[in-house]
Design a protein that fits this description.
- Helix content is about 55%, strand content about 5%.
- Helix 3 crosses helix 5, helix 5 packs across helix 10 and helix 9 packs antiparallel against helix 13.
- It is built from 13 helices and three strands.
- The two termini are about 15 Å apart.
- The chain is mainly α.
- The protein has one domain.
Length: about 280
């Protein structure tokens, strides 16, 4: 998320208050970021498909797309960027548990995310909701601002794709912007990750998925790859698995009523942007 970068890709990210403004001053407005991200996404998916790594037929792919389609209208309902997103999802054949999102709602989930962790549909919704929240919060724009401030460069999309799919070679020159500006391979801050966890839990509740599944995702993550050591807790940009679990448990009482309410309403038109969404989307961190 950059859900599960875990150290498979190492990068340094500047996350500063006001990075979105810096990005806009440098020409990285929402519309241009979304357009550039869409172009890079199409090219990346084209190459992945050419290597027979794009999954469109398996039961895993069917489940991911079904959850994604169910959640899309709720994500669009809370979009406050001023630009409608053209949400898209790709499922990539890779054993590495990973998922990511680009500006404008371009997303991918690895088959290993679902199969290695044996995720339920509700747990898939937690992963997808997390990535949707990164896009809705425009964390990629904040990353772009940090890049402008620190002149950070030197990574190529080949690093990210090789790490998450095992493919190498032809990706070497495929757009450093995809990593350098859009957060595909660079870790978000702990605050951004917590906001994305909370937003993902809120989105899944609004779409009728039990938000308790967001907690069980990270419990399964602990069983798969425990990162709750002192080094990770001090040095990592990401919160530890246990820290995520604690934060999600604290947030759960805020979203369970949404789950119960929206299970009874079952209509996107009746959803209103709550104060909770304002807090998640307007945070600068």
């Amino acid at each position: 998320m950059n859900v599960l970068k875990y150290g498979s890709v190492t990068a340094v990210c500047c996350v500063l208050a006001g990075c979105s403004s810096v990005a806009e001053m440098a020409g990285y407005d929402t519309a241009s970021l979304n357009q550039a991200a869409a172009k890079q996404y199409r090219e990346t998916i084209r190459i992945i498909d050419g290597r027979y790594r794009l999954d469109t037929e398996s039961e895993t792919a069917r489940r991911v797309h079904a959850v994604f389609e169910r959640m899309k209208p709720f994500a669009e309902k809370v979009n406050q960027t001023g630009i409608p997103f053209d949400w898209q999802m790709a499922v990539i054949k890779s054993e590495e548990p990973n998922a990511w999102a680009l500006p404008g709602g371009k997303m991918a989930v690895n088959t290993g995310m679902v199969e290695k962790l044996q995720l339920t549909d509700a747990e898939i919704a937690a992963v997808i909701g997390h990535e949707m929240t990164h896009a809705l919060r425009e964390d990629g724009k904040k990353a772009a601002g940090g890049n402008v401030l620190k002149r950070w460069a030197g990574y190529t999309v080949g690093i990210a794709v090789q790490a998450t799919t095992g493919i190498s070679g032809g990706f070497a020159g495929l757009g450093a912007d995809l990593i350098g500006h859009y957060g595909v391979a660079m870790p978000y801050s702990r605050a951004q990750e917590n906001h994305a966890d909370e937003g993902g839990m809120r989105l899944m509740a609004e779409a009728g998925y039990n938000p308790q599944a967001a907690v069980s995702v990270w419990q399964k993550m602990n069983a798969y790859r425990d990162n709750n050591n002192l080094k990770t807790s001090i040095a990592s940009n990401h919160p530890t698995n246990n820290a995520r679990i604690d934060n999600l448990r604290r947030y759960l009482p805020q979203v369970m009523p949404l789950y119960q309410k929206h299970m009874s309403l079952r209509k996107v038109d009746e959803i209103r942007v709550s104060d909770g969404w304002q807090n998640i989307l307007q945070s600068t961190q």
